Amino acid sequence: MLRSARDLLKRSGEANLSLRSVARDAGVSSAAPYRHFADKDELLAALAALGYRELTDRFASIPATDGALTELIESFLTFAESEPHLFRLMFSHPSTREDAEPARAGRAALEAVVRQLPDFSEEALIAAWAFAHGLAALIVHNQISPGEDRRKYVAAIIKAAAKASS
Fold first, then answer.
1. What is the CA radius of gyration of the chain?
2. Of 14, 112, 11, residue with least CA distance to 54
3. Which of 38, 54, 75, 138 is 20–30 Å from 147 (CA)?
4. Which positions ≥6 away from 77 have C-beta within 8 Å?
């Protein structure tokens, strides 16, 4: 179901995603999705959680080195560019319950960042997350382009932000 939902999200966007369309795409009865999801919101929550888990896996594969911040931001950007619909969904449907699956998965992604940047204060971690998210959103919405050398672009922006904050 989630694979079909993700494919439909990518092909036609969230507005055209329904439990009925997922069932049709998956080749199952129209009642089948209701065995897994109470409604479209639960399906979207499961998709958002899936995206956060993928982001967590990407973050966890980055070694905790001096260049980890740049690598984490690049990984975030790569994810957002390769999965723009999923990225938008993850951050446009905030969880209303602390124990909801997307909230838990989102915290796990942030915890992966904490492990990769052990010397960062809580404030610095939130700033890094906000920085990466904001940059990714600008790129996904075609407001800016990192150009050919994304690593160099990200490093230059980090350097400029550090200089501006001092």
1. 17
2. 112
3. 54
4. 132, 135, 136, 139, 146, 150, 154
pLDDT in tens, the chain (166 residues): 999 999 999 998 888 899 999 999 999 999 999 999 999 989 999 999 999 999 999 998 988 888 888 889 989 999 999 999 999 999 887 666 665 888 889 889 988 888 888 888 988 888 888 989 999 999 888 898 888 888 888 888 888 887 887 7
Annotated domain spans of the chain: 1-37, 41-165
Specify whether the CB–CB gap between 133 and 76 falls below 8 A.
Answer: yes
DSSP 3-state of 132: helix
Q: Give residue 96's pLDDT.
A: 60
Superfamily classification of domain 41-165: Tetracycline Repressor, domain 2 (1.10.357.10)
- Give all strands (DSSP E) within the chain, no chain letters: none
Q: In the CATH hierarchy, which top-level class contains the domain 1-37?
A: mainly alpha
Residues contacting 133, CB < 8 A, separation 6+: 76, 91
Distance CA 52, CA 86 (A): 9
Residue with tokens 């931001």: 73
pTM for the predicted model, two decimal places: 0.86
